[in-house]
User: Fold Protein NDNF from Struthio camelus australis.
Amino acid sequence: LKMSWVWFYLPLHLLMAVCLCHSIRAPTTSSQQSFKSDLFNFYHSLILADGKETTIHLLKDIPKRYYFVLEEGRAPAPFTVTVTPCDVPIEWSILVHKASASFLGKAARGDHDTQEVSKSQKTPSMVSTIFNYKGNSVETYVGMSSYSALYMLQFLSTERDTHITVYLTTDTTSGHLYPELPVDPRIDVIGIGHTTVTLAWKHSPSVLQHRENIQYCLLVNEKHNYKSLCAAETAIRSSGMKLPPMLALSLSPYLLEPQQVMILSNSELSLINKASSGEVRQICMGTKNTYTVPSLSPSTQYYFDVFVVNLLTNASAAYTGAFARTLEEPEPKMTELKDGKVIQVVLDGKKQKFYSLQYQARHKRIQFTFQSCRGQVRVHITKNSKTVASENISGLRYFSLKGKLLDTYLVQLRSTEQSNSSVKVQVSSHFHKPLFPLLPESLKIKSFSKLRTCNSVTIAWLGTQEESKYCVYKKRIEEDQAWMELQSTDRCTGPESRRKSEKVLCKYFYDINLQRAVTTETIKGLDAGTPYLFDVYLIGPSGIPVRYHSKVVKTRKKC
Assistant:
């Protein structure tokens, strides 16, 4: 049994015309008409190459047909057809048209005559479907034929445009294009941690026979399992991630060293050792059949697919995918808050983790005070596991809450920025002894452009109805330092952190009428054309300072 490749050199319409002359008599019944229709389908097919993987593009709802021919031989021999869907499920089938071997051979050579054609019409031909499949799994059909036959493969996608790969071979003695899978192709999850999952799988027979040409690759993602490396690549492309042609996912075994991780971002492909959560990762580990996946997110479900890849042909076979959920992150250490005591917390902006504080009420009414020292902070407060307050703060913020004795309050703090943040926290049941001074409506410092001179600047700020102490400080800076100075300001530090040379003055003031609770100050002795950073500190009865928002003002260059 062998392939009649001489047919490649015949015009396709001539080949089909010979088949029709040989097989079709006058259609006298509906079955004969159906048979003629089947042969018409063969006419609109393409020749499928033997021993080569063919990529076929399918348009939605438009069937595509390919054919191949088997001639009669001395002994039956097998042939195989493997179809790999690269995206959505498809429908495919194999149809066979049985015919005389002598006629097919003569038709191929073109030496038949009218009498033989007439004689062949007496030999009935049959077209039958020998295989049908619908789905998105890799499927292989193994056939055996001892008679001459014309085979047609028909493919159809009903969901959307897609592509598939098809591999036909009549030579089953010279090895396999696709690596072999073990009898049990499952992936075993043998260990689960908070950020790791350990996997194991049985060796492919191909690895044991051709170790230098075979490699295992693992695909990790948070969506679903993939039934082929082709399907995984298609999904990554359709999500908007771009793969350079020479760095396609299916070629990656050539590129990766053991233990390296391939990160697919929105616009580029790079090899690094650690991936951010939510991205697709591919790890190729040579011929090792165990692997611990690192750097996963806690309490997250991941899907794992192992592919055994032939480095010579770039063909692959997929193990049965597995999935696992990482363990929940351990509860963070709880810090107990004590009544009236102030603590300062530094929050890691990169890890974006919550810092937890707990307080058990000894009075029905309590007050939480938060002073954001640097950056913006997310505050979430629960009472007996029910949320009572949740918001972002920058500056000073009070939360007055009412409950019962021994109510348990949980405070969770998190930086809202990528950089570190810090915040001061106090809880108190003594409302008559406030920790922070009474604050004005705004903590902004205003400067007057018309009152600016070459050696002086006039600034103003709001006060309150409570007599308090206000201290003014100045700092000479470079023009390109202004933004950095404002960003790095720690609003929780007081005048004690400043140099004595930076102090301008301290004064007391208040006004019962809030409309008139405004004070101004003219700072003299400055250099011309020079920027200065000005700060005002409000210090209340408790001695805890509150810093106004820093202000940068530049003196005039010419007067």
